[in-house]
């Protein structure tokens, strides 16, 4: 996929989120910055507890009450060029903003659809809340259902329980696009679905993206899905983006030891016999995070400096950035081990 | 070699809303000592039910279950109890499968005491420490007095495995045992299982929906692909993965994204005739995959139930009529271009 590098839709600057817990402050997201361009798909990958879902909720300002969000801003550019800082929004502004500018597809399609109302009523409710006529909403919904390869009339009349898991996930995808948002955030949309269902969701998503050209923030722990659909991949560890760059750079020329370790732990189906490696230990405590690089306790490349000071994000080429003191050695190893096998 | 356990023409029904639903049909499967075999397939294909039958947790509705070459029913009394112990299961969710009110030491001591596998407190403690060391929960002294909630998901799954090992089993059924564990620690759990298999001579039945993981874990063993209650393809892992015969297996392999951008974006797509998985209450006649199969041959596939047997030019068994008559193209790549 190609996207417009000159047109930034969402610009996140120094975003931090902490939760108040009984033991102290949990630093769940720490100084995260990135730009999302028009038509770009950004995959945020990381393991459970790395802060990816918190970051996600912070972007749509739906965090629980015990969370504090700080940062320079979440700068959003409307289609007409107007720029706003989403962090300054009131509740009313936010309700208007959500769905029409930035939509969200949550994990677990069954829980996101109201079981006691028909899909059609969900469409009409949304339309009413955002001042769109019923007929217009109906027309748009039917068109979108067709685009996600569903039987439009049947689905429109259905209750959620009448649809299979894969169909519900596609309904959600279609509904998220109802108000033509510029940004769609998806949290693990293909987790807990079967292989062939996942395939059809991925295919539908790719097709919709090509037709409607929206931007996607895709949250996943699945490296394979990120490899397939992302333009840009960001690796998160202990609340920080430790590496971000074009998908091929991150996968074949990794610059952060954590990214490379994750890749070395992921089996590939069509690569015969493989030697895989686990990452020792477990993610750090975010109430009292370790000094220096937060990954150093589990890192095979760590040395004295990594234990003392946290590495800054350094640019490698125009779009690739990573925060790792050993990025040269990581890069060399990635080049040796992750090279594209002849396809 | 006599298989440890062997299923012959096994069927299993479940009753839902007073309707009997057949979830397993004509399963023939033998597990050799020290073997590793993966059962793969999508949800509802019967892989977990097969695993439970193999572990002795669920009796088959019809068909025979043989252990060491003798039908299960021929074991009685003490012999039956001893046999039952040799088959253990490790469940998917390590948060649900350990009692939160007991310490790890307690959890491991119950089966040891119940089956009188150790005598005396000193021997009990020695055995618990030995088990914890076997699953790499070291130092054991730090773990024995902890409660499950104080451990990470990966550590809990190790405790589950240690618990399965208390009774010296010969076969462990691992049902999606690493699905809930983070990517970075999965591999160490799988490596540990493989080491235990070699050290203790265990057989492992590994149930998963993740084909890449199945390929990695069972490279030296076998893979059985299941669809709607039947085994549709079975063979040595490299044969099944590198040279899949059944159209369903090919569809699955083609659908899986790969953790490699170039590889995954250059995969050849395979379009099915339908995305709908038929309900188990209305399994299509003939080959159950025929309504979705891109290589459907009218007059054959929907009328004749294909037996699971070796197809010409394949090293392994497949249940597909066009294969058996030699009318399906052999080369997977050539096929995908159709």
Summarize the SSE layout with pairings.
The complex is a heterodimer of chains A (343) and B (338).
Chain A: E1 4-21, E2 24-38, E3 41-45, H1 52-59, E4 67-70, E5 73-77, E6 83-85, H2 91-97, E7 102-105, H3 109-112, H4 119-129, H5 134-147, H6 152-157, H7 165-176, E8 183-187, H8 195-212, E9 215-220, H9 223-229, E10 232-237, E11 240-246, H10 247-252, H11 257-264, H12 304-308, E12 314-316, E13 320-322, H13 327-337
Parallel strand pairs in A: 3-9, 3-10, 7-8, 8-9
Antiparallel strand pairs in A: 1-2, 1-4, 1-5, 5-6, 10-11, 11-13, 12-13
Helix pairs in contact in A: 4-5, 5-7, 7-8
Chain B: E1 5-16, E2 19-31, E3 36-40, H1 47-54, E4 62-67, E5 70-71, H2 77-85, E6 87-90, H3 104-114, H4 121-134, H5 140-143, H6 153-165, E7 171-175, H7 183-200, E8 203-208, H8 211-217, E9 222-227, E10 230-236, H9 237-242, H10 247-255, H11 261-265, E11 309-310, E12 317-318, H12 321-324, H13 332-337
Parallel strand pairs in B: 3-8, 3-9, 6-7, 7-8
Antiparallel strand pairs in B: 1-2, 1-4, 4-5, 9-10, 10-12, 11-12
Helix pairs in contact in B: 6-7
